[in-house]
Amino acid sequence: MAVRPGLIGGALSSRAGGWHHGEVRLAVCSSKGGVGKTSTAANLAVVLAGHGRTLAVDVDPQDSLGRAFGVVAKGRDDSLAGLLDDPSLDPRGAVRPDVVPGLDVLPSHPSLEQVGVSLAAQGGIVSSVRRALRPLLADYDHVVLDTHGDLGNLTLAAVCAADSVLTVFTSDPGSALGAARVSAFLELHRDFENTRAELIGVGCALWDKQGRAAREVLGALEGTGLPVLQTRIPLSRRVPSSTLSKRPVVLSAPSSAVAQAYSALADELLAAHSKKVPR
Ligand SMILES: Nc1ncnc2c1ncn2[C@@H]1O[C@H](COP(=O)(O)OP(=O)(O)OP(=O)(O)O)[C@@H](O)[C@H]1O
Ligand SMILES: [Mg+2]
């Protein structure tokens, strides 16, 4: 297991204390776009890679998760889209190894959208990502799946490949509603599609500590019984600039407050995961 001293703040100290949270297969979902999913998924994946071999999977046709690491598929066949469309492809051919030490990335491609539509029409969309990842899973301790900002078929396919779900909110008042929608979506498909993923966290990915709106959203969420996380990711210009530099902020500015917050979020999620999803 690769551990990079100084990178992980709180997570490292937990580990030094003999941390055994087990494997996590985490889908990051939301019912709307632009709420900080990809930034959260990319940073969590790096932090988790400090605890065990990790695969980051981009289940969004916008292919932003790969781009957060400078990884772009050349075509459909070296991306998740190819693996979903053609089960005979070797999944290893699409995985970019050691994008960061301990972290491999399975990128998306814009064709994923059409592949998803075809699979939905012919059947097999729900289990498609789970099936594509199955031959790879033995190689990883952790899997992080990023999704499109909706509760559509590809998001359902990502959920079906996960055991845990994180949803994120912002200071937008619609955000609290979004978290409740994700929770209802998971409940529905646990019945309809036999998915097993649990909502293990509702986290603020864009926390404006000066803003009243964010506190109101938080207040609204706290009354819902949803698993609201203590850790909030502060607003920071470092996050958009880290996308430009293709190095998530936990790598490019590890001692910044925002990087420390992503590390603390990983700690909190792993603790929640081990309570909710015992192995
Ligand atoms: N903590 C933060 N502080 C400041 N900007 C942030 C923060 N987190 C994310 N952003 C910025 O907000 C925008 C949306 O973030 P991101 O792409 O992570 O959201 P998303 O939910 O994945 O969006 P989409 O639904 O389009 O995939 C990006 O420009 C990103 O750089
Ligand atoms: Mg995104």
- Helix count, per DSSP? 12
Structural domains: how many = 1
Q: Numbering strands along the chain, what is their spatial order in the largest sheet?
A: 3-4-2-5-1-6-7-8
Tell me the span between the first and last alpha carbons: 20 Å
CATH architecture: 3-Layer(aba) Sandwich
The distinct ligands, each listed once, are: adenosine-5'-triphosphate, magnesium ion
The percent range for strand residues is 15-25%
Note the run of SSEs as H and E.
HEHEHHEEHHEHEHEHEHHH
Oligomer: single chain
The CATH superfamily name is P-loop containing nucleotide triphosphate hydrolases
* Annotation, overall tally of beta strands: 8
Mean pLDDT, nearest integer? 90
Describe this structure in words.
- By secondary structure, the chain is of the alpha/beta class.
- The protein has one domain: Rossmann fold, CATH 3.40.50.
- The protein contains twelve helices and eight strands.
- The chain has helices at 10-16, 37-49, 64-68, 80-85, 112-122, 125-133, 153-160, 174-192, 212-222, 238-245, 249-252, 257-276; strands spanning 24-29, 54-59, 96-100, 103-106, 142-147, 164-169, 198-207, 228-234.
- The chain has an eight-stranded mixed beta sheet, sandwiched between helices.
- Strand 7 (198-207), helix 9 (212-222) and strand 8 form a beta-alpha-beta unit.
- The longest helix is centred in the C-terminal third of the chain and has 20 residues, at 257-276.
- It is globular, with a radius of gyration of 17 Å.
- Mean pLDDT is 90; it is low at 1-21.
- The chain binds adenosine-5'-triphosphate and magnesium ion.
- Residues 37-38, 60, 64, 146 line the site of magnesium ion.
